[in-house]
Amino acid sequence: MCNLITYFNIIKCIYLCLLFASTCGAKGMMMINQKKYSSLLWLIPSLIALLLTGCTNSSVKSSQIKYPIINYSNLASSSTIKLSQKVKTKFFSISIPASWNVNEISNPSGSLYFNKKSDTDFSGGIYCQEYDVNKGESMPETDALLHWMLPNHSVIKNTTQISGLSTDTYLLQVEQSQPAATGDLRTTNWTYIIFFDRNKTTNTKFVAFELFLNTNIASEADAVKIASSFKLS
To answer: Is this prediction's pTM over 0.90?
Structure first.
């Protein structure tokens, strides 16, 4: 929407146009007809268009930072994964496949790591993340907050807001590279699903939970299906 200053400028412009017309009178119109001041006729609509453009651009900028919103059931519809293992911590519970190992870590408290029982490589987990209460209150701040929560050398390829879950939830497709000093050019792809708990605070901090899964062990649909089982304690 246009702000009050923009409306005021438009009204002022119209007022000046009317004032110009009323003070010119017949003599002024004759001068315009003689093309001595005909260029002024182009100035008036141009000025109004400029003001209106400024108003429109502000609306476009606010819409460009909004993410698409998709219900979780649509995102998870193609998943065939079976969630037969329920994991519970003091902060949350979640269901995962029986073929996954779970390791709880103490720092930060309540965080988990996952890997397939047939594979010792780390393949995902849930990370408990604190953030300042004044962050994420508007869409630009939420966008910055999502980037801040990711590991170094991460690039967000796509962001979707998930509806239908019990918390404010965002789905991110992330590509992660190795530090340049390693000379390793390989990248890994991850699905991040971030749950914001706006009600739970620790002193001056809000708490968010990041479910992250390597795309080698879970598709986006699988990750969303697992996320739908997430419940805060």
So the answer is: no
- What are the angstrom distances between the C-alpha of 192 and each of 10, 88, 114, 128? 46, 20, 14, 13
Provide the β-strand partners of residue 70. 162
Top-ranked range on mean pLDDT: pick from 41-45, 49-53, 143-147, 157-161: 157-161
Nearest partner of 181 among 214, 152, 212, 149, judged by Cα? 152
Q: Considering only CA atoms, which of 176, 131, 141 is closest in space to residue 157? A: 176
Q: Is 218 exposed, middle or buried (0-12, 13-18, 19+ CB in 10 A)?
A: buried
Nearest residue to 211 via CA among 165, 153, 142: 165
Q: Is the pLDDT of residue 47 over 60?
A: no
Model pLDDT, residue 56: 40
Tokens of 164: 């239908």
- Which pairing describes strands 100-105 and 92-96: parallel, antiparallel, or unpaired? unpaired
**Section 87-109 average pLDDT:** 89
Instruction: Give the C-alpha distances (Å, rounded to integers) separating 114 from 96, 117, 119, 226.
Output: 9, 9, 10, 13
Residue 131, pLDDT > 50, answer yes
Tokens found for residue 19: 């004032």
Mean pLDDT score of the chain: 77
Closest Cα partner for 212 from 193, 230, 195?
193
